[in-house]
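Proteins fold reproducibly. Consider a sample protein:
=====
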Amino acid sequence: MKSVTDSFVSLGHWPSAGGFGFNTDILATNPINLSVVLGVLIYFGKGVLNDLLDNRKQRILSTIRNSEELRKGAIEQLEKARARLRKVEMEANEYRVNGYSEIEREKENLINATCDSLERLENYKNETLHFEQQRAINQVRQRVFQQALQGALGTLNSCLNSELHFRTISANIGILGAMEE
């Protein structure tokens, strides 16, 4: 195998006819060309590559900082939302308790009002029954009195003569006249 230095074309090996030529041995020239291209790329491309990597690094760091800021903002908003949720839950529980208390109060008021109404209706019913009983008793008394009076008049008319009848009427008129004065 030839060494790397042998693969360089030396002037001593060139044919005398031309002076310049191409080495057509691909296996010998390819590593040399690659090493030259890589060397040029590394030498001149190092700055560009560093700039690209630095820019990329700065973008990544900037993205991380922005993400951290957004994360902190989201955490703050989450805490605020949780605080509002706790406050709303407390208010809802308060309304629920107050609502139940109000419902119980209204229920008691309604029961009391209904009991009062029933008591008034019972009293009205009792008064009406008492009134109707008194009216019925008065009607019965009046009929009994009328029947007794008719019976007494019938008895008096059959037993009394006209003179006795006249004296009884006069006495009754006198009693009624004394009552009016």
In short: Helices lie at 4-7, 26-159, 162-180. The CA atoms of residues 28 and 154 lie 173 Å apart.
